[in-house]
Design goal:
The chain is 24% helix and 37% strand. The protein is of the alpha+beta class and 241 residues long. Strands 1, 3, 6, 7 and 8 form a 5-stranded mixed sheet that branches.
């Protein structure tokens, strides 16, 4: 009886040891992928990998989504939210800004979706700027445009986000296809580009009603004058349970 008791006790100890080792090995591997930001609760940390993909790579996917949709159904050209669900796939829901000026949109999204958007960003591609020949040229072009940002603001459910500059980054080199009647007016076809911008990556919102509001403005002084740009978007989101 004593021998049997000792064997059972050792088995229990082995199980406890195995579980402990699993936590030691697995938990550190998981944390970088789900880590929240310390400055703005509910936002993924910019050095994390939501769903196993880096923050920067997700911004590239946002641009692939935004530039692949023809102008007549493009969410950035929509003032009501009727095109909010166009080409939305995967665990992250993309929200578009505008091509200038304000838009107020109502949008229903499934529960469990993270939300990615930018108050203001820039993008340069070989198709739009044929004088650019290298990835370094594209990066310099996108950076120069984004350096002209003068103001931006983001509120989520009435709470103003802090220190948006900490979320500025460039995408990897991205490949995408411009469709016919695309939003930038270049011939349809495949190209490559780089984006630069401030990005907000929200962890999944609770089921119910939410409001996201963001604005951005930039000013570029050139030899031909001053070019001003400002966009503003208000999203009334319904997250289905």
């Amino acid at each position: 009886m004593r021998l049997e008791g000792n064997t059972t006790h050792r088995q229990q100890q082995n199980v406890i040891l195995l579980v402990t080792l699993m936590f030691v090995i697995i938990i550190p591997a998981i944390i970088p992928y789900v880590r929240a930001d310390n400055t703005n609760p509910g936002v993924f940390s910019i050095d994390s990998k939501p769903y196993g993909i880096s923050y920067a790579e997700w911004t590239g996917r946002w641009w692939q989504w935004a530039l692949s949709i023809p102008k007549d159904t493009n969410p950035a050209a929509d003032n009501t939210g009727k095109n909010c669900a166009v080409n939305q796939n995967g665990p992250v829901w993309f929200l578009a800004g505008t091509f200038g000026g304000p838009a107020e949109r109502s949008c229903t999204i499934p529960a469990g979706k993270a939300v990615l958007f930018s108050p203001i960003n820039s993008e340069c591609s070989y198709a739009e700027f044929p004088n650019l020949k290298t990835e370094a040229d594209l990066r310099a072009c996108a950076k120069t445009q984004e350096d002209h940002v003068t103001s931006m603001q983001v509120t989520v459910d009435g709470v103003t986000m802090k220190d948006l500059d900490k979320y500025r980054l460039q995408s990897p080199l991205i490949s995408f296809i411009f469709p016919k009647n695309n939003v930038v007016g270049v011939p349809a076809g495949q190209t490559q580009g780089i984006s630069d911008g401030r990005w907000v990556f929200l962890q999944p919102l609770a089921p119910g009603k939410h409001e996201i509001h963001f604005t951005g403005a930039s000013q570029d002084v050139t030899t031909t004058g001053t070019q001003n740009f400002a966009d503003e978007a208000t999203y009334h989101l319904t997250v289905n349970p």
